[in-house]
Amino acid sequence: MSSRGRIVVAMSGGVDSATAAALLHEQGWQVVGVTLRLYDASGTAASLGGRCCGPRDIEDARAVAARLGFAHYVLDESEAFRRAVIDDFVAEHRAGRTPNPCVRCNERLKFGPLLRLARAVGAEALATGHYARLDRAGGSVRLRRALDAHKDQAYFLFGVAPELLAMVQFPLGDLHKAEVRATAQRLGLPNWDKPDSQQICFIPDGDHRAFVEAQGGGGRPGAIVDERGEVLAAHAGTHHFTVGQRKGLPAGRAPRFVLRVDAGSGNVHTGPRADLRRHGLRVADVRWLDHPGSDCLRAHVQIRHHCAARLATLTPAPRDLGTHVDVQFDSPVEAVAPGQAAVFFDGDRVLGGGWIA
Whole-angstrom Cα distance, residue 124 to residue 166? Predict the structure, then answer.
């Protein structure tokens, strides 16, 4: 088998990144496996199954590398991860917003140290197990959705700078999850049947409220109020609520939903589902991967991971007024949550995105 060059593969310990590494190894690449130690959840009940940031994850990645016969290294980026992702997560909840730590991790942390290592070891590229595709036609790099719509992760990657994406490969972009599992089993990978992680990696038990409180980021206590401002109940902190939430609200004749969280007063404003609908929103801190070059454009906008992108008109701010974009949807959308990522698509191509203000 002739070598196609050296490539660094980010290995989380899960089946997706393991299969990405195995496929590249099978294709003749000289693979160097790397696991980022971002947060140590060892000792928690949720980490015992090896799904979230525990020692088992590193051991699983190392076992795959040993099975296939390539080198494996561990980079400790836990302090950088705390500063870039965890502190942001806590601060956003304290401010009454709804953060997305996976987007922040890709944007601020993950690809930087991995690409630095790739350059240091003379690798031609970095590969990850993300479900996304890169189009290099015409000499530029365009980020596209994965073939498997149910696993697509392009939404989480809009914040990665184009110059970094130019050195990246996504081997799973043209595969469905079932094919990935079958490939891992065919290649004898020891973690081929490992369950997928369903939680934020640094909160393996899924209780983000308790985590935020433990980090000193609990929001202000206050009142749950109705659409007229009348008090329905007291609450223990605004970090318990996000826009669109129904659970945890006082029972009434009709279902109520969180419409707005006011971190300053501690009030959580609620109302009927119809009041969740919005025709427009503002996206701040916008960065473009593939700017269409017009002052006003039509695109599909996705406002959270598990929702369909909706057609809208985008109006970028004048250059002297910052990097925000005003979005006007053709039909109303529900549960626009400040702090979440809003990502712009032209078909399956990622144009850019930012943060709902």
Answer: 11
